[in-house]
Fold this protein.
Amino acid sequence: MLLKRTLISFAVACIATGCAVGPDYVRPDMRLPDRYLGQAAVEQRHASAGTEFATWWAGFGDPQLTRFVTLALEQNLDLAQASARVAQARAGLGAANAALLPSGSVNAQAARAYQSVETPLGQVLNAQPNFERYGNAYEANLGIGWDLDLFGGLRRGREAALAEYQASAAGAAATRLAVAAETADIYIGIRGLQTRLDVARNQVKTQQELLATINLLYGKGLVAELQVRQVEGALAQVRAAVPVLEAGLETAMNSLDVMLGTAPGTYREELAIARAIPAAPQIAATGTPGDLLRRRPDLIVAERRLAASNARIGMAISEFYPKLSFGGMIGGATSVSGGNLFTGGASQGSGVLGLRWRLFDFGRINAQIDQAKGQEAEALSAYRLAALRATSDVENALSDLVKREGQAAMLGQGVDSLGFARKASFAAYQKGVVSLIEVLQADENLLRASDMRAQAQTESARAAVAAFKALGGGWQSSQTDAVALR
């Protein structure tokens, strides 16, 4: 009796004070720089006005880009999977919450039996006065059970489930950010390929005009056949680049359709009209590397998984201690009629206080604790590594953006100069001052520079997309609060 009272008193005290074994979670301190290395260069860019991080894709000033990103966020199937994972994690949290509460069940049954008088038992019973061959039986019971969380094992389980749910929600936000960034990247790539195709087709047209001129001169006996063949060869080389670019363009369009959750070819007609490559907007309010820890959803995923692994250490340690449970049942039963089911002697009840203690299993428990600690150490290293890689992603994207924009500007100047040189060389060739070789070289140089400029413009816009993604743009601050450490 004394032991029973002691255990009950101890259980009430533990529940009232909320004690739980195992280490309490403390968010690790990350030592990161106060400023990005490439932040000053990005702030000095001459670009359009900045944009809200939550809708950074609108800052490119391309309505069609904004439309496709919006469609992707509504229709993408990766996002549908991420939402389903959040629902699963929410259900796991509900189960962990329910484990802390008492459970109850109701059981009831009714039976009607017929006794034959031809059997030995029936013959004996039939000899009794007032024997009834038909019998009724009724029973109803209400049962309750409660696992008393004396040492916090279930509460640590709830902490782990909550952290996993928060990680799942942040993972969905990370998927949303990745979908928006990939959609924008593919769209910009499509516009870049279309620009390069225009360059190549214009060059084909220029070479065809040159060939027509050379053929005219050849027909008059003013040029040799060698020059005709040289121009034909140059034209074939330019034409050969067109199918490769067209194939890349079709592949990119198919990829965009998949991102939008539709069959390849759905939006091809809409994309067929070439548009300019979107210009990268100003990237304002980049924040500090430390801000990434609460801004980037993938880092929140890593941090929440670290919190979950920490809680599982407490779950493992709680196995060292006894587990108490309480069960009870009240109900009634009768074999005649339901009128006296809960009256008189028909009522029944019971109460059970259970004890489970892995008293001779401490070696296995120690192994489980060591395993949980190892998992926590692994999660900590993964979190620290993710933070370093995230900072590196930002630095790389900012540097790439500035360098690519500088390259595009220099190539733009070169294209202007080479365009003038080409016109001058052709005019000089018509006057007999230079040979056809100089004209063909001028055409080749102009084509190469124009193509490189289109690529540089494409890559600078894609670098801006990568920068917004690396900085964690694309989801609301309220989402951050919802999955942040509580």
Q: What stands out?
A: The first strand starts at residue 103 and ends at 114.
